[in-house]
Design goal:
single chain; about 220 residues; mainly alpha; Arc Repressor Mutant, subunit A; Tetracycline Repressor, domain 2; 10 helices
């Protein structure tokens, strides 16, 4: 199990060194895979000496742990921002899609990293740290559901928040790992949106405008 950085980078130059190491690791994971991401290779791509790398990270798993913590914070910030701006009662589809698109962009910006973290995450980090992150995100979702005026179909918003978060995360990570044929990210978001709206708000009502438009199109053809 990995520890975090060996020492905290306090000066600007030290912080830049750590950023370079983290970004180099992401590049290697995306382009070459986990096996290529040795500390020697990471230092080479980062443009730092191996000694400088070991000042801040005792081994590769410590770098992966730092990257996982960074992605945790990015995910939490994204969810807080999107849900603070969303309105499930008036614009359920727009609100849910905004969250899903944000998560998709986060994952697809560095797919190699997220594939590795999906498999190695619990090995390189303490389980309680991962659990603590889950609880923080679930609480953001729970608060959003509890404060909405939308007619949520369950009284247990805590359970709903847990199921929504875990369903979305599992689907997104499985998509990254498996790349199922016939399913691109846009279709995944569409299907997840339908799933979540149905679960949270009940069966969707027919969109009369769309139905009427389809009927007109059929008559013209």
């Amino acid at each position: 199990m990995a520890s975090s950085e060996r020492k905290r980078p306090r000066q600007a130059r030290a912080q830049e060194t750590v950023r370079a190491i983290l970004e180099a690791t992401v590049q290697i994971l995306d382009r070459e895979g986990l096996e290529a991401a040795t500390t020697t290779r990471i230092a080479e791509v980062a443009g730092v000496s191996i000694g400088s790398l070991y000042q801040y990270f005792s081994h590769r798993d410590a770098i992966l742990n730092a990257l996982q913590n960074r992605e945790f914070e990015r995910t939490l910030e994204l969810m807080q921002k999107v849900l603070a701006e969303g309105n499930l009662g008036e614009e359920p589809e727009k609100t849910i899609k905004a969250a899903l698109h944000g998560l998709a962009e986060l994952y697809l910006a560095s797919p190699g990293l997220h594939r590795v973290l999906a498999i190695e995450g619990l090995r390189v980090a303490k389980a309680e740290h991962v659990h603590a992150f889950d609880l923080r995100v679930i609480e953001v979702v729970r608060h959003f559901l509890a404060s909405t005026e939308a007619p949520i179909q369950t009284e247990n918003v805590g359970a709903a928040a847990f199921l929504v978060f875990q369903t979305v995360r599992a689907a997104m990570l499985s998509f990254l790992l498996e790349r199922p044929p016939g399913l691109d990210i846009d279709r995944l978001i569409e299907e997840l949106t339908r799933l979540l709206i149905g679960y949270l708000l009940g069966p969707s009502r027919p969109n009369t405008k769309k139905i009427a438009a389809r009927r007109v199109t059929k008559r013209r053809s």
